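Memo to structure team: turn this sequence into structure tokens by end of day. - J.P.
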Amino acid sequence: MTTIDKLRPYSTCGELRADDAGRTVTVKGWVNRRRDHGGLIFLDIRDRYGLTQVVCNPEDSPIAHRVAEQVRSEFVVEVSGTVQLRPEGTRNPNMATGDIEVIVSDLVILNAAKTTPFEITDHSDVDESLRLEYRYLDLRRPKMQHNLILRHRIVKKIREYLDARDFIEIETPILTKATPEGARDYLVPSRLYAGQFYALPQSPQQMKQLLMVAGMDRYYQIARCFRDEDQRADRQPEFTQLDLEMSFVDMEQIMQLTEGLFIELVGLTDMTLQESTFPRLTYDDAMRRFGTDKPDLRYRLEIADVSDVVARSEFGVFRGAVDSGGVVRAIAVPGKADVTRKQVDELTEFSRKFGAKGLAWIAFEAGADGERSVRSPIAKFLSTEELDAIAAATGAGIGDLILFVADRAEVAANVLGRLRERFGDELGLADPTVAAFCWVVDFPLLGWDEDGQRWDAMHHPFTAPLDEDIPLLETDPGAVRAKAYDIVLNGFEVGGGSIRIHQRELQRQIFALMGYEDEQIVERFGHLLRAFEYGAPPHGGIAPGIDRIAMILAAEPTLREVMAFPKNQSARDLMFDAPGNVDTAQLDDLHIKVVMPEEEPAAK
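Reply from structure team:
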């Protein structure tokens, strides 16, 4: 008997094997399938551990057989009987319990079930809205149960890994103060303090820094975080991250600790590491070569800068872009030289969505003599030497398509990065069984906000600048690099961190650069600055996203597939129908009056 303890004095539906033949057992679960074979009734009983086939024979147990005639899919049942080997030729090698079946002596319906709105199977094509509305049924599917179990193992492994390295798990508040972390806060009105609000934490950033001041030198938490931002496949309004902070530490130590953890997490799956030592890219290098600060390194398809090659070409668009301080960059798409005019138009329209004014292209085809033949509306403006240099820079050969963007560097990077991702998917260049990590470092500390006419933190305002760049804060803030680092897995940022500012005056200087007046600094961050006056150690950390890690390791396309009860793409909970209205009395208690926006006037 392999039951865990006395709390489960029965067999699971995944544990019985050939060695159990002859045993009297009880199994409990849901009816996955019912088959009536002219007298014999076969039931597949399912729980989260697997499936067990049971057989109801009217000659062995007529009462159980009559009950089985009433049973339908998703009924909850209790079955008692004797384990026997399946007859030769009927064993199922695709089932862990496929060598045996249970001959039923007693069958009890514990609960009947209505016909479900969709089949409880991994193979049915069900609209996601219906799945989310009936999430408790969706979670019965083996794939979803596998995903939640994987997520459990990820969190368990994290705790084991950090506990072994002297980290202490500490909970921080959910009701806290609104502070600028980069996204919009979810606010919670106070009943006791009219007109005042708590905020749900976007992350426990200041809390963990205060824990460092408190002397808790190695902290972690499986932290719930909340951000009121637009949804996408890898975002949810509420999510879970591993929050981690260390004192007396440098970037190298945090990165090594994180690499070791991620290597162990990949070991929970059948995925293989592309490299055991994670490559490191500077932010500028990542943007130039891949057009993104979260590159998918499972395939190369790198962006080439051909500005020097075409700076004096006869093609005015290229020459003009370089003369005006811009760049000309290109990417070679393997095997796409047969592109049609319609496809080029579609790629051009795609590129315009991301800021491109247009898209130039060259196809290297095979000529009659087997040599390279050039097909392109701009080929007549380029010399043979220039074409050869472009081919060398991009790695393009016969059969390949080269796409060009001539614009500001940031536009060229964004557009070609999107094209790179598009063709990576279209051509199947990314192996789903491979885990390709990298680090991106040397981010800009600050970015200029044109609308607000002020500097904004690229990560968050508590990130320390590189020591050698601190003098530039007074002369050229945009050139200051941060002690920040992102860990990237298969094209997703799965964790971001930094060494924090721990000196009061440097932190005030950063706040002032971001446009905060002295009164605002005291109101919003006074608690942190005051703590720094009492001996704050140097410290830093990282916050990997648990949902996103689970999504990638489970090979799922969205976070919703690895969360028990997610919101949909419109940030609604379809099962509870939330958000929803509340009683006027509740609003009165909170001193809140709801004013609905006026309807837009109808278009004439």
